[in-house]
Amino acid sequence: MSEEDTQDDNELREAHDRLAKLSMDSDISGIRLISYKDESQLHHVMKLVGDDLSEPYSIFTYRYFLYRFPYLCILAVPEGQDTPIGCVVAKIDEEDISIAPSQTVNDSSQQQQTNTTVLTGYIGMLTVSEQYRRQGIGKTLVRMVIHRLRALGCTSVTLETEVTNVHAQKLYQDTFGFIREELLEKYYLNWNDAYRLRLWFDVSADQGQPGTIGAVR
Prior knowledge:
Helix content: 25-40%
Distance between the termini: 42 Å
Order of helices and strands: HEHHEEEHEHEE
Oligomer: single chain
Shape: globular
């Protein structure tokens, strides 16, 4: 096993240990939430997402998300069944950001911005089977994965959604407080534009309180 593989395994174990303290209880009657476990669930995720997306993902994209971040793939499964009817898939990246220096009223000196690297969550896929929509399942999945991303130290979460997908924009912006960060012209294969949305966390409020939702409603 390579040093990189060992590091990945250690990161997986550490993430699982931190997330084990978080509840997986669903607030929707008859629906249970489970984390992605292994390859036997891969085809379920691919079918769910493939049936709902305007453009296809390759199997390599799914495996990148699911093998590296299995604890950030959450499946919604009806009680008494094994086949999921909804899922959210996310990942964590490192992002370089610039921080403006704090300056008092009497401090007129010029100070340079400082650069730092932070963890940023990214929601890549969210879908619920059509016959199970409008029951709050999508909202519950998003809330759960945001909870996990924040517990793992992310300072924000980003995603993209088509400008024509008003329902998704309403979910992310009105329910969770995402803001429009950028318009991405001709972003999709069908040449549709996209909005990049971001939800910032109040990191200072999390100190000593891993897993708190804070501003997330």
